[in-house]
């Protein structure tokens, strides 16, 4: 029976399965790079908390829609996993923001006490300078503005080299995720765990449930599209992408592209596309916003030399 299924597997069905598997692998590893980046920095000041919260709303409505439409268990399991991962990342950001805010208040109090002291007035300038240095060291990443003025003329060359190395390393990671997703699909297909979904199969449930699922799907799409706007504005306002993981956004781009491709390769029938339109908008629409963030990564990395001149 399995051999007969293998023999009659159409190319578009295989591509749909491969893209869906790669998308699954991308979502599983998506938040890990940003969690690691925050841990290494000891700070979450680079990522917008509004971005994460709106994204979490999108994931919650996505999960609700999947449950209402009684989608396949893998889709529901992935939606649950992503909500949990969102909460972990948000909790980490809140933790670092709280710890660093307390540290800054303590440094500010020490600085104020020093300034109010009537003793050793001639040492105030040195004390204030030391306080500013401690303040800069208190928040990892907060030293990025002051430290650039001490860079030498080799900085642009070194930044170009390290920037290219980062893109190469992250590109290799993306290729490994693609490879893992492809191998996973082949193993699932050969073992009979994965099998093509009939093109005319629709969501299970009555008309009201289907309508409710569609509404939740559109709410989710709007949340996904709006989530990146605070991050883009934050990057532009601070003219920096420091503290953001480039791999995080690369995996997001890969996951959204392969998710949309998996849907479209399965079927292009009008009813099927309309049913999945909210998820197509949510996945393919955010790719343009990810492209803006990639441009910001490039712009603000090259702009470091200009800051040094100032």
From TrEMBL:
Membrane topology per record: Multi-pass membrane protein
Protein's name in the database: PQ-loop-domain-containing protein
Biased composition (Basic and acidic residues): 122-132
PANTHER family the record matches: SEVEN TRANSMEMBRANE PROTEIN 1 (PTHR16201:SF44), SEVEN TRANSMEMBRANE PROTEIN 1-RELATED (PTHR16201)
SMART domains tied to this protein: CTNS
Biological process, per Gene Ontology: vacuolar transmembrane transport
Family that this chain belongs to: Belongs to the laat-1 family.
A Gene Ontology cellular-component term: lytic vacuole membrane
Gene3D superfamilies in the cross-refs: 1.20.1280.290
Protein localization: Membrane
Annotated transmembrane regions: 14-36, 48-69, 75-96, 171-189, 209-226, 246-265, 277-295
Domain of life: Eukaryota
Molecular function GO labels: basic amino acid transmembrane transporter activity
Main localization of the protein described in the UniProt heading: membrane
Region (Disordered): 110-152
UniProt keyword annotations, A-Z: Membrane, Transmembrane, Transmembrane helix
Catalytic activity: L-histidine(out) + L-arginine(in) = L-histidine(in) + L-arginine(out)
UniProt xrefs under InterPro entries: LAAT-1, PQ-loop_rpt
